[in-house]
Design a protein that fits this description.
By secondary structure, the protein is an alpha+beta fold. Among the domains are: 69 residues, Alpha-Beta Plaits (2-Layer Sandwich), CATH 3.30.70.100; 88 residues, Calcium-transporting ATPase, cytoplasmic transduction domain A (Distorted Sandwich), CATH 2.70.150; 159 residues, Rossmann fold (3-Layer(aba) Sandwich); 102 residues, Calcium-transporting ATPase, cytoplasmic domain N (3-Layer(aba) Sandwich). It contains 27 helices and 26 strands. The protein has a 7-stranded mixed beta sheet, sandwiched between helices. A 6-stranded antiparallel beta sheet has the order 6-5-7-13-8-11, with no helix packed on it. A hairpin with a 3-residue loop joins strand 17 and strand 18. Helix 5 runs antiparallel to helix 6 and helix 13 packs parallel to helix 26. The protein is elongated. The N and C termini lie far apart (83 Å).
Length: 730
């Protein structure tokens, strides 16, 4: 028997270095792909565990990682694994998923700027501590060569540190000067350069005083303020990018009887595409074959699915629920309604980004005066001292350092960080640094209905009043359907301990309902006309037991979100106008508005109409707070003066918002409005403290009584005062 020969490392080194053809083929077969899925219903660690366990048990999946804050999962898998397989598996365990295009998502995981600031802050802090140790020796009486040696060692630590850690300020100052304006970073950069330059000059000349510790300490405190400000904004990302990523990247094109998976960019007007049950519409189009029901809640806020049959117009982003559809393309890619909504959001975001914060307005007035003071002190002391440049530069540097806007730089982020922590404990996450300032200016609040004031999930009513023998049949029929009302009915009956009846010949009639045979009789659960029932005024599904009796009506209601009533009453008590703006039917919107005491309400509002209402109010001088959760709210959320969305909202809505409601309770919305007013007051107090400090300290520096070191200590004291005042928020 011949032995199987394998190449050894000693016999053929090239066999180890150069892979064989079989190895290359195997590597290609194992090629990996990255799949990104949106998971709107993921809420906690249990959800994460369930999703990751299911996905990692799927053949071909190498790893799955859920990001709870972004409500998405990233899957590394073999090329043979399809998105449809993963979505079907997740739907099976109760986690609806939508495919995202990884190429269109902003790389928030690669937080380069945050890591960069943190690294520079760490370097500045480490260097500051070491230079302080050397300075203590000098302050303790070191003289002559020992003092000069310590100064040179301090210089070797401080100069590279300032060159590295001070880059954010230097780059910003240079950009300001190129645009011929004086930003807050210009006096900061001048103070750092002058303090280090004077210290180096004194070290070279063998002077008694060097201020490397002051320069590095100044840089450290400023970086701390810059990092606090960055962290308060770090969660903000582009909602327009998220909306674009929600577009379906591929579609099943029909070429005669053949189905071909193609990229959306390859579709043309007039092409035919097949949309399977459970899939989202990849294009705008017209149904030419098939019958189903369409879930438009993501785009319009409609609670109930609508029937889709021949000649029904469909839009990209809608979900096909029950039956396969053949759709003729009328718009694809950038021409779809979903993409136009993304463009609308992008325009709204750009307009809102023009908001000028209190700190920016203060810096515009403060920075020029600092430079005028420093230049005046230099020229004045140059004349008084008879041309002593060394003395004049030292005093000018002390003026620059003592007036350095470190306290101003900390005034806003210190308060925002403190207020954000307080609101976080109440269940609100502040994403944007100026959100609290804008929230304090609000006079009008607009609420969406479905998923915001309500939970967005139908709840069966009065099941205990139904005939007991009908419930097992209803359970069996409901469990066989993916319609939202059927899913809710099955879940409620299951929680009551109802056991499904043994039905045969179960089948779903797309667009109508589900039917089967029970004890030889045909039974149906679905639309009123299909089962021969009279249409009820409320949301309902109907059961026909096929025994000549009148069909049974199962009514549904959307459950009010906890704290909704308290939020509306609290905002009204603060003197704010409250509106309800929904895409749902008029009857449902009117009933909810009446229940909550909201007199100003509108129903049937499309996404563009919601954005238009916000724009009209803004143009009339109102400061609008928009609270919503769906794709149909995204443009309005982005266009409002400030916006809030629940954590259960879709990615695009959460991203367009300035504040995210982490829990189900809506009550903290009123708390946020109240706390924002307090936070704005604290910010103004910090500005007043900073200016009061300058009124006392600047004259001391101008008359030459403050060295750069004393100036740095005074600056640190003012920063501490501002921080302590901000901590009063807690």
């Amino acid at each position: 028997m011949a032995a199987t020969l394998t190449p050894s490392a000693t016999a053929c080194p090239a066999c180890v270095v150069v892979p064989s053809a079989e190895a290359l083929a195997a590597k290609r077969a194992r090629a990996e792909s990255r799949i990104m899925l949106s998971l709107p219903s993921v809420r906690n660690a249990t959800c994460i565990s369930s999703v990751e366990r299911l996905l990692e048990a799927t053949p071909g999946v190498r790893s799955a990682r859920v990001n709870l804050s972004l409500k998405r999962v990233s899957v590394d898998a073999d090329a043979s694994v399809t998105t449809d397989d993963l979505i079907a598996g997740l739907n099976g365990i109760g986690y609806p998923a939508h495919e995202l295009d990884p190429g269109l998502l902003s790389a928030t995981e690669n937080d380069k700027r945050g890591r960069d600031l943190l690294m520079r802050l760490g370097v500045a802090g480490f260097s500051m501590m070491n230079i302080m140790l050397l300075s203590v020796a000098v302050w303790s009486g070191a003289e002559g060569p020992t003092r000069d040696l310590f100064h040179w060692i301090s210089a070797m630590i401080a100069l590279p540190t300032l060159a590295f850690a001070g880059q954010p300020f230097f780059a910003s100052a240079w950009a300001s000067l190129r645009e011929r304006r004086l930003g807050m970073d210009v006096p900061i950069s001048l103070a750092l350069v002058l303090a280090s330059s004077i210290s180096l000059f004194e070290t070279i000349k063998g002077g008694h005083h060097a201020y490397f510790d002051a320069a590095v300490s100044l840089c450290f405190f400023l970086l701390a303020g810059r990092y606090l400000d960055y962290r308060s904004r770090a969660a903000a990302r582009s909602a327009a990018e998220e909306l674009a990523a929600l577009e379906v990247p591929r579609a099943l094109r029909l070429d005669g009887a053949q189905e071909t998976m193609v990229a959306i960019a390859d579709l043309r007007v007039g092409d035919l595409v097949r949309v399977r049950p459970g899939a989202r519409m990849p294009v705008d189009g017209v149904v030419i074959n098939g019958a189903s029901e369409i879930d438009r809640s993501l785009l319009t806020g409609e609670t109930l699915p609508v029937q889709a049959m021949r000649d029904t117009i469909v839009s990209a982003g809608e979900v096909n629920l029950t039956g396969p559809l053949t759709v003729r393309v009328t718009a694809a890619g950038k021409e779809t309604s979903l993409h136009r909504m993304a463009d609308l959001v992008a325009v709204a975001e750009t307009a809102r980004s023009r908001y000028t914060s209190l700190a920016d307005r203060m810096a515009r007035r403060y920075s020029p005066s600092v430079h005028v003071l420093a230049l005046s002190s230099f020229l004045g002391w140059l004349w008084i001292s008879g041309g002593d440049v060394r003395l004049a530069v030292n005093i000018a540097a002390a003026v620059l350092i003592i007036t350095c806007p470190c306290a101003l730089a900390l005034a806003v982020p210190a308060v925002v960080t403190s207020a954000s922590g307080k609101l976080f404990r109440k269940g609100l996450l502040i994403k944007d640094g100026t959100a609290l300032e804008r929230l304090a200016e609000v006079d009008t609040v607009i609420f969406d209905k479905t998923g915001t004031l309500t939970m967005g999930a139908p709840r069966p009513l009065l099941l205990e009043d139904q005939p007991r023998d009908a419930l097992p049949v209803a359970m069996a029929l409901a469990a066989a359907s993916s319609h939202p009302l059927s899913v809710a009915l099955a879940a409620a009956l299951r929680s009551m301990g109802v056991t499904p009846a043994g039905l045969s010949d179960l089948r779903e009639a797309p667009g109508y309902g589900v039917e089967g045979r029970w004890q030889g009789t045909r039974v149906r659960l679905g639309r009123a006309a299909w089962v021969g029932a009279d249409e009820a005024t409320e949301t309902a599904t109907y059961l026909d037991l096929g025994q000549g009796a009148a069909p049974l009506t199962f009514g549904f209601a959307d459950r009010l979100r906890p704290g909704a009533r308290e939020a509306v009453e609290g905002l009204r008590a603060q003197g704010k106008q409250v509106m309800l703006l929904s895409g749902d039917a008029a009857a449902a919107v009117k009933a909810l508005a009446g229940d909550l005491g909201i007199t100003d309400w509108r129903a049937g509002a499309l996404p563009a109409e919601k954005a238009a209402v916000v724009a009209e109010l803004s143009a009339a001088g109102h400061k609008v707070l928009m609270v919503g959760d769906g794709l149909n709210d995204t443009a309005a959320l982005a266009g409002a003066h400030v916006s809030i969305s629940p954590a259960s909202a879709l990615d695009a809505a959460r991203v367009a918002s300035d504040v995210v409601l982490l829990g189900q309770d809506l009550g903290p919305v009123a708390d946020a409005a109240r706390i924002s007013v307090i936070a704005r007051r604290r910010i103004k107090q910090n500005f007043a403290l900073s200016l009061a400090y300058n009124l006392v300290a600047v004259p001391v520096a101008l008359v030459g009584l403050a060295t750069p070191l004393i100036a740095a200590l005074a600056m640190s004291t003012s920063s501490l005062m501002v921080t302590l005042n901000a901590m009063r928020m807690k």
